[in-house]
Design goal:
Four Helix Bundle (Hemerythrin (Met), subunit A); Nonspecific Lipid-transfer Protein, Chain A; four-stranded mixed β-sheet; two-stranded antiparallel ribbon; 10 helices
Amino acid sequence: MQPTQAMDEVLTALAGQDDELDELIGGLDESGWARPSRCPDWSISDVVLHLAQTNEMTAASAERRLTEAAAAFGNPAGAKPAATVDDLAGLVYQRWRASSAAQAKALSACEPGERLPWVAGDLSALTLATTRLAEMWIHTGDVAAGLGRDPAPDGRLRPIARLAWRTLPYAFSRAGRTLAGPVALALTAPDGTIWEFRPDGPAATTVTGPALDFCLVAARRIPPSATALEARGPDGDAVLELVRTFA
């Protein structure tokens, strides 16, 4: 797939993910916003505020307005969003809507290979957009779980699974470990087709199973032992332990 085509696919998927979250939260009352999400100690309001903040960071990055201080503020793993005067249901919703529109506009103006500053270092615009899609998908699931909903998986998982696959060397390096060899994926898509992600040469380790399971493991929402994933090769267990879609 050409970079421009891939960028279009990701931005379309991101817009669809925004719509899915909007359908979940658009009609919530105050008690709904206060319900606990799937994220420990985070309400639905906390999750949406966090997404608004990181959307704003993305727009700033794409528009070359992201300062070092803002990057440090943005998205420390596991950190609860700072309590602000905006942390009121209606204002959080409006802030998220505005930030999503600003993010989409800023990313669509970038070339796919353009390098943009982010928390863990510069990323291509395509990678940053895919990272945003992954986070939106993860947190939409967190909100849905808090509301007792179970969104059906769809083709938006494909770029998320590819991101997790391509960033395996980064995930291993973060853990102070090294891959023994290339990794291949053969994942069953929600429509029953197979999504294959293969290195240029022979793969040392191969992961098979449902794409949804793989993405949930990469999101750290379920343990590998609770899935139908199978990993064969010298790095099999480590891949499922370390795979991630976030910096």
